[in-house]
Design brief:
Order of helices and strands: HHEE
Strand order of the largest sheet: 1-2
Bound molecules: zinc ion
Largest sheet: 2 strands, antiparallel
Radius of gyration: 14 Å
Strand content: 5-15%
Helix content: 25-40%
Structural class: alpha+beta
Shape: globular
């Protein structure tokens, strides 16, 4: 979740990428195993590709409209996880909303 590690990914996509990579959002970079770093980069590509496919052709004249109905965890605190059915957690810290699954993400 640290923007100094990777700038320009907003917290909605950060939530989605971490969910896809099955990584707990408050892990420190130094604790990630090489295969987890690989999973993170793979998830970055797959989530952003899926997102651009999902919003392609749906953006109107207002580029600030956020199309987010395809997101799996971001903004879904209290709802069931799409993978395991566990309740999605929601934490607000430093004016940033973070959603994740405590069961799927370690
Ligand atoms: Zn889950």
């Amino acid at each position: 979740m640290n923007n100094t590690f990777l700038a320009s990914i907003g917290n909605a996509y950060a939530d989605e990428i971490l969910f896809a990579a099955r990584i707990y959002p408050y892990r420190r970079r130094s604790t990630l195993k090489p295969e987890e770093v690989d999973a993170l980069y793979g998830a970055m590509h797959s989530v952003l590709e899926r997102a651009s496919a999902a919003v392609a052709g749906r953006m109107g004249d207002d580029i600030h409209v956020k199309i987010r109905d395809f997101l799996q965890v971001h903004g879904k605190g209290g709802e069931p996880c799409p993978q395991c059915g566990n309740t999605i957690s929601q934490i607000t810290a430093n004016q940033r909303l973070t959603n994740f699954c405590r069961r799927c993400q370690v």
